[in-house]
Design a protein that fits this description.
Number of helices: 24
CATH topology of the largest domain: Rossmann fold
Structural class: alpha/beta
CATH superfamily of the largest domain: Vaccinia Virus protein VP39
Radius of gyration: 32 Å
Number of domains: 5
Strand content: 15-25%
Helix content: 25-40%
CATH class of the largest domain: Alpha Beta
Number of strands: 29
Length: 674
């Protein structure tokens, strides 16, 4: 469907909505038309059906506007619509959260019982419970362009009940499971892009089921030029035993890495140069035989006329052994010399020969030793290089390029109880996420994970802060989804369902059909609303307990886990408030949730002692005019609708106060004419 708006109306919509693939701005009866998506002139994801709808609508517009400029504008739009784009095409699927957004505004409410404060003068970390799309809409209001790093581990859409769409698992037989997944991911990634700071990076874990479409989707959203690399992560050993019905053994997963802009540069940590590999020396037992190769003086030593000594430890004047093969043959002067002048000389000089080549290399010596093949069937040779001259001084550093393959099979095999909480489904090792945190030299970054799951990202942030004294902070978004395994166990325990038959028996299929029917009943829907049932959800039973364990150093059962971390945590839950309330003003309802937005944006606690929120005159009198509090005030946020007299304004001006940011709920209040 194509939407027709005035230019100003369209700009307002762009700031708050990404549901519209193409917006047509009509100015002065369609005198010129332009179409935007996040600031650029593009045509978004168009299915065949949507493309035809747009063309039909254009035809209707043509009949209404017949002036020359309009006709030219319509023709240009049609060309873009018909233009075959390289990339993905999928059917867009609206989620329940999209439907909720039509009539409701997302808000945060704090669960104060889950607050943890252990570090004075340190930013708060946050857990946001609810649909992550709901949380992301609110984060747009507080962190637009302010997130330094995003790491996510989304559902892989394997068809094995790993992907929940609108409260239902999407199985392998769903004809729309790929388009549902792409629709699901695209909405979230478009917001993620806007959240990233100009120097920010996003890291996305995935396996081969959706790796290819995800790459195309990210190219479209972040820009192909902002693709950095794909990391290949070994997650299990080849000999690991898997389920008997599996045909292939998956050892590798992937992490896609994208930057926000060209300003994003990974920090490559320099390492102190050491001599561990420089363990060889050469003893010349004769004067050898002199000749010339490639314009260079060369001394040839026959087998038995020299000895290569291997020392137990490296040393400053030692030599390093390098195989002259592969990319080495083209990569440096020694490799090229071997390729051009020494390769194949075994037919002339014999086997086991050593060549001393002068005027080559960048080490302290004015020569370099080469050896040819040692056996008749061999073709490879070696050379021996000294420590580069620029690395001879103590404290010299080297820079090692960032790899794109990590063997982490051992780490994945030992993460069951990492963080003091057992979790078997898709848990990622802290060590892996710390690698990505080290892309940033700055130790004061904000990290977001909106598929937080087990909370590994939060622990990685806190562990690295502990190691290097950093002040990084994290925001974790996760729902409180209850796994089917826990659902079954719960309802069997409550007596709603018969005990599950043993797997592989004839009764198992019958029981499964009964379970699928039961899930659709009102009885089930009513039950899941219970506090007891909600406690089984992943956020309540895994994410929060893990973060609490790491901070406090105590496992949920009270046993010791570690010495703890000097960190702070707040726990917010996503809820809704109506866009058009009947019995009260929308502004009054939204004012009740301004505190959470300020706390999230600035990583603080609004305690009305040090950090003060003034929504009305009563708040002003209780804080600014209160002598017991006024001297402790550091920050003030003021409702700009309050009218102060001259005396009150003078008092307020004695502080560095800020108005409540309009981006919090300003657009919603405008729409409600408040």
């Amino acid at each position: 469907m194509l939407f027709l708006y005035t230019k100003n109306k369209a700009r307002d919509l762009i700031s708050r909505s990404e549901y519209i693939d193409v917006l047509i701005f009509t100015v002065i009866k369609c005198q010129y038309i332009e179409y935007y998506n996040d600031g650029g002139v593009i045509m978004g994801n168009l299915s065949r059906q949507k493309r035809q709808q747009m063309l039909d609508f254009l035809e209707t517009l043509r009949k209404q506007h017949i002036d020359d400029e309009s006709i030219r504008a319509f023709a240009e739009i049609e060309n873009h619509i018909r233009d075959k784009k390289y990339g993905l095409v999928w059917e867009k699927h609206a989620e329940k959260v999209d439907e909720e957004l039509i009539d409701n505004i997302p808000i945060f409410t704090e669960n104060v019982e889950k607050k943890i404060s252990k570090a004075d003068n340190k930013s708060y970390n946050f857990i946001l419970e609810g649909d992550n799309l709901q949380s992301l809409y609110l984060l747009e209001k507080t962190h637009n362009g302010a997130i330094d790093m995003i790491y996510i581990d989304p559902p892989y859409n394997t068809g094995e009940q790993d992907f929940v769409y609108d409260d239902n698992y999407v199985d392998a037989n769903d004809a729309y499971r790929h388009s549902k997944w792409l629709s699901f991911m695209s909405e979230r990634l478009m917001i993620a892009r806007r959240l990233l700071a100009p120097n920010g990076f996003i890291f996305i874990s995935i396996d081969d089921k959706e790796a290819a479409p995800l790459r195309l989707l990210c190219d479209e959203i972040f820009g192909e030029s902002n693709y950095e690399k794909t990391d290949y992560i070994q997650v299990r050993y080849p000999e690991k035993t898997l389920k008997s019905d599996m045909k292939y053994h998956k050892e590798i997963e992937q992490v896609l890495v994208y930057k926000r802009t060209e300003l994003a540069k990974p920090y490559i940590k320099p390492e102190e140069y050491n001599y561990d590999k420089f363990i060889y020396s050469v003893e010349e037992l004769t004067d050898g035989r002199e000749m010339e190769l490639g314009g260079k003086k060369v001394i040839i030593f026959e087998k038995g006329e020299y000895r290569i000594v291997k020392h137990p430890v490296g040393f400053r004047d030692g030599l390093k052994e390098v195989w002259a093969t592969g990319t080495i043959l083209n990569g440096n002067s020694s490799g090229r010399f071997f390729r051009d002048y020494l390769d194949g000389r075994k037919n002339e000089d014999g086997l086991g020969v050593m060549y001393k080549v002068y005027d080559i290399g960048d080490d302290q010596y004015d020569y370099r030793y080469f050896t040819g093949p040692q056996r008749s069937t061999a073709t490879k040779g070696k050379y021996y290089q000294g420590v580069p001259v620029d690395k001879m001084e103590d404290g010299s550093q080297k820079v090692t390029p960032i790899p794109n393959f990590y063997d982490m099979a051992g780490d994945f095999g030992n993460i069951r109880h990492e963080g003091g909480v057992a979790f078997n489904s898709g848990k990622k090792p802290v060590k892996m996420i710390k690698r990505y945190l080290e892309y940033f030299e700055d130790k004061d970054i904000v990290v977001l994970d909106f598929f937080a799951g087990s909370g590994s990202t939060g622990q990685a942030v806190m562990d690295l802060n502990k190691e290097d004294g950093g002040n990084r902070s994290f925001i974790l978004c996760t729902n409180n989804e209850v796994s089917e395994k826990k659902q079954i166990a719960y309802f069997i325990e409550k007596g709603y369902m018969p005990s599950q038959p043993r797997k592989g028996t004839k009764k198992e299929k019958e029981w499964k059909r009964a379970w699928d029917y039961f899930k659709c009943t009102q009885e089930y829907d009513a039950e899941i609303a219970s506090e007891e049932y909600q406690s089984l959800g992943i956020c309540h039973s895994i994410t929060y307990p893990r973060i609490r364990t790491v901070i406090t150093g105590k496992r949920p059962d009270g046993s010791d886990y570690s010495e703890g971390r000097l960190e702070n945590l707040k726990y917010f839950k996503c809820e809704w408030t109506p866009r058009k309330p009947e019995e009260y003003l929308l502004s009054n309802a939204l004012c009740l949730h301004i505190r959470e937005m300020i706390e999230l944006k600035y990583g603080i606690e609004v305690d009305n002692i040090k950090n003060v929120l003034i929504l009305n005159k009563t708040d002003f009198r209780k804080t600014v005019l209160n002598r017991e509090i006024s001297d402790n005030i550091e920050n003030i946020w003021v409702n700009q609708n309050i009218i102060f007299n001259s005396e009150e304004l003078e008092k307020l001006n004695s502080y560095e106060y800020k108005y409540i940011p309009e981006e919090f709920f300003g657009q919603e209040l405008k729409e409600a004419a408040e």
